[in-house]
Design a protein that fits this description.
- The chain is mainly alpha-helical.
- It folds into two domains: 56 residues, Arc Repressor Mutant, subunit A (Orthogonal Bundle), CATH 1.10.10; 35 residues.
- It contains four helices and no strands.
- Helix 1 packs across helix 2 and helix 1 packs across helix 3.
- The longest helix is centred in the C-terminal third of the chain and has 30 residues.
Length: 94
């Protein structure tokens, strides 16, 4: 069974549905497609942390994007170093 990932916006909307209606966490969880224990945990976290309740890394796609950006920066640095090395070694001595 795979693990589900929910972004912060999804969690906030589900939590608000519980808090702003008279529905139980279990009923809302069935409606939105997540587990009731997870939704209860999100409600507690939302109530405790207020404005930034779900600061995690986000979805696997966000994590992948972050990793790719890091690799791009490293590759660009390596390229710049190689350019400087070529420049130094290709200078003619007078």
């Amino acid at each position: 069974m795979g693990q589900n990932y929910y972004d912060a916006e999804f969690k906030i909307q589900a939590v608000k549905r519980v808090l702003e209606t008279e529905k139980t966490a279990g009923a809302v969880a069935k409606e939105v497609g997540c587990s009731a224990p997870a939704l209860r945990k999100w409600v507690v976290e939302y109530q405790e942390k207020g404005k930034t309740p779900f600061p995690g890394k986000g979805t696997p796609r966000d994590e992948e994007l972050s990793q790719l950006k890091k690799e791009l920066r490293e590759t660009q640095e390596e390229r710049d170093i190689l350019k400087k090395a070529i420049s130094i070694f290709s200078r003619t001595k007078r």
